[in-house]
Amino acid sequence: MPNATTSKKFRKPLVIAAIVLAVLCLFVGCSNAAPKNEAAGAKSYTLTVVDAEGKETVHELSTDEEMLGAALLSAGLIEGSESEYGLFVTKVDGIEADSANEEWWCLTKGGETVMTGVDSTPVADGDKFEFTLTVGY
């Protein structure tokens, strides 16, 4: 039967081993966690937002949605009001167009003006969209 001195000899290494094991589990658990802000979806696409000063903010996104409007709404990047023609986008990436200053959001795809509303614009893997805050009607 072990004596008290032998038990004390093993206690310190056991405590240290338990601490090391706990730290390792913490690091392994953190490294296996999914990265924050990673959107899930089968289709990857890019949205570039250009503000009134010309500053560009690029968003790399993924979605399973068929239409751009639904994808951007679920990503929290656009807001607007419903009209008979679909969603009229009034805010993109937290920037609101001021109608008193004749500001509006112009949607383009690969630099070309999109001729459909955001609700009826399909999104495909690899698409590159731009929303540019435009002044003047």
UniProtKB/TrEMBL annotation:
Keywords: Signal. Pfam families: DUF4430. Residues 71-134 form the Transcobalamin-like C-terminal domain. InterPro entries: Transcobalamin-like_C. Residues 1-33 form the signal peptide. It comes from Anaeromassilibacillus senegalensis. The keyword Signal applies. This is DUF4430 domain-containing protein.
